[in-house]
Amino acid sequence: MANSLTIERRNKLAQILISEGSVKVGKIAEMFAVSTETIRKDLIYLDKKGIATKGHGGAIASGNILAIEQPLARKNTEYLETKDKIAQIAAQLIPEKGVVILDTGSTVQCVAKALVMKSRLTIISNAINIVQPLSGTDNDIFLVGGKFRPSSLATVGMWGVNAFQSINADIVFLGSDGLKHRNGPCTASYEEAEIKSAMVKSARLRVVVSDSTKFSSSGLFQFCDWSDIDYFITDPGIPEDELKKMENLTEVIIID
């Protein structure tokens, strides 16, 4: 299993690939202060994930760009009607006076908006955009600190991981990046994978909310297995083969 430094380097390498379109082994090895053989292994890994196409002396980015983190502002404008329907179903799972953890992401943000009319909940999140619409509600809101990531408007790092490890929540709502051919929900950031994993372990009921377009690509870092998830809420566009696989591992709820 790759260690944390390897995972972080591969994440950064993937970001460079998408940003620049191609990389050269020698230049990247010098940038990361590692051997060219190490970078070749990294590129082989990214090639297998569908993120890079390895060639002589380097690699080019594949068309699988959804495996790399997309700006939240862009996500917030896509498939809003579908995400709102998913959120309405998700909100029905919350117990009265429940303790709720909300992950970052555009679909989870829709879940947060669906809770505006609820009261007497304890809501905990590491994302500014998640707690903002809930600020004027009759709920107790906790924002977990850490290193701020502008791309997701969320905090990451051991402060947040330790905070979530100390929480005993009734339910957690998690977002996910690319789901194609993966054995669990994913994220494009290693740091966010750490904190999402802590969220999963902190809640009695674990729910992933995601529209079916996430099955068009494969995410970089899997933060738990589908067997760790109690409900997966999505739309009817989920591929049939993926649906059959997931139904053996968790309860799938498909919106109308």
Account of the protein in words:
This is DeoR family transcriptional repressor. GO terms for molecular function: DNA binding; DNA-binding transcription factor activity. This protein has 10 helices and 14 strands. With 256 residues, the chain is an alpha/beta fold. The strands form 4 sheets. Strands 6-5-4-9-11-13-14 form a 7-stranded parallel sheet, with helices on both faces. Helix 6 links the parallel strand 4 and strand 5. Helix 8 packs parallel to helix 9. The longest helix has 17 residues.
Domain tally: 2
Report the span from N to C terminus. 40 Å
Unreliable residue stretches: 65-69, 73-77
Which term fits the overall shape?
A: globular
CATH topology name of the largest domain: Rossmann fold
Largest sheet: 7 strands, parallel
CATH architecture of the largest domain: 3-Layer(aba) Sandwich
CATH class of the largest domain: Alpha Beta
Give, in order, the helices and strands.
Answer: HEHHEEHHEHEHEEEHEEHEEEHE
The proportion of strand residues reads 15-25%
Strand numbers in spatial order across the main sheet: 6-5-4-9-11-13-14
Secondary-structure content class: alpha/beta
Helix content: 25-40%
Number of helices: 10
Roughly what is the average pLDDT, rounded to an integer?
Answer: 88
Question: What is the radius of gyration computed over CA atoms, rounded to a whole number of angstroms?
Answer: 18 Å
Number of strands: 14
Domain HTH deoR-type: 6-61
Keywords: DNA-binding, Repressor, Transcription, Transcription regulation
InterPro entries: Carb_Metab_HTH_regulators (IPR050313), DeoR-like_C (IPR014036), DeoR_HTH (IPR001034), NagB/RpiA_transferase-like (IPR037171), Tscrpt_reg_HTH_DeoR_CS (IPR018356), WH-like_DNA-bd_sf (IPR036388), WH_DNA-bd_sf (IPR036390)
Organism: Ewingella americana (strain ATCC 33852 / DSM 4580 / CCUG 14506 / JCM 5911 / LMG 7869 / NCTC 12157 / CDC 1468-78)
